[in-house]
Amino acid sequence: MILISKEEWPRCKRCTAGLVRGANWKQYRTDYVCDTCTKIDSKNRREANYEDRILAMYGVSYAALVDQFEGKCGICGRSQSIFRKRLAVDHDHLTGRVRGLLCQQCNHGLGNFKDSIALLEKAKAYLGDSIVAAE
User: Fold this and answer.
1) Mind giving me the DSSP string for the chain?
2) CATH architecture assigned to 60-135
3) Where does CATH 3.40.1800.10 sit in the chain?
4) What is the pLDDT of residues 83-127, one digit of tens each?
């Protein structure tokens, strides 16, 4: 077994950290990029791909939508900054027209009601009736 000094270890091309197989660098990798930099690159690619997908689907960038809708959920009004995930682009599934941005809870709520105004009205009436019955 040949031992090499730390100065001779390969270094990450991006952050120049020493690479140790199994600790912060996969043995099968030949690109000499540490795990931390690889994760950062992957996240940046995902963000760029999301932006490209939104632009292709709706003809407008996600950043422009955030500006237009002031970075808030269209139903509850909470700001994007309090959520871990980005706001979802809500759109009419028949026309493809963007309606606004929604937080995950509100987006799932609409989805559970199948975007049906009639179902939402029934839910509203049900909630109103249950409040009256409790009094």
Assistant:
1) -----GGGS-B-TTT-PBP-BTTTB-TT--S---HHHHHHHHHHHHHHHHHHHHHHHHSS-HHHHHHHTTTB-TTT--BGGG-SSPPEEEE-TTT--EEEEE-HHHHHHHHHTTT-HHHHHHHHHHHHHHHHHH-
2) 3-Layer(aba) Sandwich (3.40)
3) 60-135
4) 999 999 999 988 889 999 999 999 999 999 998 999 999 999 998
